[in-house]
Amino acid sequence: MPEVVDKLIEFHKLNRDEYAELLKYSENAEVRDRLSSEAVKLRKEYYGDKVFTRGLIEFTNYCKNDCYYCGIRRSNANADRYRLTKEEILDCCRNGYELGFRTFVLQGGEDGYYTDERMADIVRCIRRDYPDCAITLSIGEKSYESYRMYKEAGADRYLLRHETANDEHYRVLHPEDMSLKNRKECLYNLKKLGYQVGAGFMVGSPGQSIYTLADDMMFIQELAPEMVGIGPFIPHKDTKFKDEKAGTVDLTLYLLSIIRIMLPKVLLPATTALGTVDARGREKGLMTGCNVVMPNLSPVMNRKKYDLYDNKICTGEEAAECRGCLERRVESVGYRLVSERGDAL
Ligand code: SAM
Ligand code: FES
């Protein structure tokens, strides 16, 4: 067994060169199995057989940004745009609460229609109606003041994938008006404000290498976020990456197990993108250290429009069906979906 494997398992951290070295073994069955069983051991130690569930409400697909990989980027004229009203969002929460969800994730593009005041008002209403639920926001890069307003209104958590921790790679994926520096600063600001923070990245995005991934591992190690969202990159037909290959399930699973070992208590979702590249991708994620699933609570009529990448799954089912389907999937690999907020330990 390579020395770096034992070192990660013993110390829960490595340096950049060691991560790059470890990433060279992603196709070695023995190494994969070792890391995966250690990851599962740790997740069971802290979370037993529990899988937390988050109700995802994709409330707008308008976005001022132009991330090159993203299907709802500003310059995609083929995107059929929509916004949910506060009442529609609250309806999603009501439906979700009845189904047992105790975390709502409001995700959307960076949409100027939702000013800080509107956002804070929506958060306050959810907080008032569902005092026992966690509220997670995932609405991109904002100022410290804006994040503070949402926090005071009642938001608990924030998901902001850093996308890549390597400057050059960041430029491959984003236009000039966006910067990795600002993205990282946002994550540190969110931490300072007391949010439970989620960072993360796409696996197999154009320009990614074991060296950029080693930078991702170093950044995650340094930030020590409460949550890490990673899923395969999947091309979207209306982007310049339409002919690129999707990220693989195997590399995603390998990275998931490394992240679980690095941060044993981390909240780690088995993502929809993982379920899109492989029909049993989410189950495989659960068998490699994941402990969260994020079924969709958005109104079915809008689901297809939140079209980040091609062939996204779960766009035709009602929320109740999604929950039932996931419950069965989770049970099929020996875990149990629970109705809890599922805060970071
Ligand atoms: N606007 C917010 C933000 O930028 O954080 C949240 C919405 S954004 C669509 C959510 C995530 O979708 C991104 O962080 C990105 O990693 C992921 N995503 C976008 N396009 C994707 C693609 N083609 N394949 C896989 N994931 C993608
Ligand atoms: Fe803004 Fe994708 S470019 S959500």
Question: Please, could you describe this protein's structure?
Answer:
- The protein is of the alpha/beta class.
- The chain has one domain: Alpha-Beta Barrel (TIM Barrel), CATH 3.20.20.
- About 45% of the residues lie in helices and about 10% in strands.
- It has 14 helices and 9 strands.
- The strands form 2 sheets. Strands 2-3-4-5-6-7 form a 6-stranded parallel beta sheet. Strands 8-1-9 form a 3-stranded parallel beta sheet.
- β6, α9 and β7 form a beta-alpha-beta unit.
- α5 runs parallel beside α6.
- The two termini are about 30 Å apart.
- The mean pLDDT is about 95.
- The structure holds S-adenosylmethionine and FE2/S2 (inorganic) cluster.
- The site of FE2/S2 (inorganic) cluster has 8 residues, from loops.
In short, what is this structure?
This protein has 345 residues and is an alpha/beta fold. The protein has helices at 3-11, 16-23, 29-47, 86-98, 116-129, 144-153, 167-173, 180-192, 210-223, 249-262, 272-277, 281-286, 300-303, 319-332; strands spanning 50-53, 55-60, 103-108, 134-138, 157-159, 196-203, 227-232, 292-293, 336-338. The strands form two sheets. A six-stranded parallel beta sheet has the order 2-3-4-5-6-7.
Total tally of structural domains: 1
Give the overall shape: globular
Quaternary structure state of the chains depicted: single chain
For the termini, the CA-CA separation is: 31 Å
**Structure ligands:** S-adenosylmethionine, FE2/S2 (inorganic) cluster
Main sheet: which strands, in order across?
2-3-4-5-6-7
Strand count, sense and barrel status of the largest sheet are: 6 strands, parallel
Q: Just give the CATH class.
A: Alpha Beta
Overall pLDDT confidence: 97
Number of strands: 9
Helix content, binned percent: 40-55%
> What Rg do the Cα atoms give?
19 Å
Structure annotation, total helices: 14
Fourth CATH level, the homologous superfamily: Aldolase class I
Our estimate of the beta-strand percent is: 5-15%
**Weakly predicted, low-confidence segments:** none
Q: Which fold name fills CATH's third level, the topology?
A: TIM Barrel
What is the ordering of alpha helices and beta strands?
A: HHHEEHEHEHEHHEHEHHHEHHE
CATH architecture: Alpha-Beta Barrel
